[in-house]
Amino acid sequence: MAELPGAQAGFGRPAPLPQTGWERLRELWWLDEQQQFPEETMNIAKSAFTAGVVGWLYGGLPAFVSARKAFIEGSHGEIFQNRADAVQSAHRAGLRSFIRYGWRWSWRVAAFATVFNVVSTGLSAYRDKTTISNFAAAGAFTGALFRVHLGLQGLAGGVVFGTAFGVPAGGLLMAMYGLAGETLQEKRSRERRELYEQRLAEWQSRLSMTEILGQTESNAQGRPDMERATELKSY
Question: What does the alpha-carbon distance between residue 218 and residue 212 come to, in Å, rounded to a whole number?
Fold first, then answer.
């Protein structure tokens, strides 16, 4: 990933704040001067991991119970060395189903959450504001993407399902932002503006100091010339 322009400003004027939606969008994937991604980008990765774990549990736990129960019901005629062997065999059958069906749900839920968050975060950055419509559009796009292989009817169903998911999810996030006092986009804009003002003040201070030193050096060089001219006049 690229490094954020202006992160190493040196003695030059600080880079101006991003003015267009594309500039703010690209900034999501730039490293800052601490070699870290923006908070919004890290939240996308965290939510993908969390969604993967939730999806694995959602698909794996029922499959584990079902497979274990089916093994017990279908193994009455089998001979085991002891009770512990029978219990271990039932657990192994359940564990195989837990891994198999848990993975199926895990990557699907993680992919859905990732696409949804990437689109909603991208819209918020591009528009420079966070609204319910961003989440509704992200949900509709994600639902359509996951149902596009089912044809036009599946596409329409995906849009409806995604929108129905995106609106309450966005409402919940907006409520959380309301309690925090500002959205992530507003927080990032404020921090970016404060950092720019700080860097601009430091640059202006260095520039003023450079001008003062240059003027002092010029005066110091001009003084011997004046003294030499005065001596020549005295002769």
Answer: 10
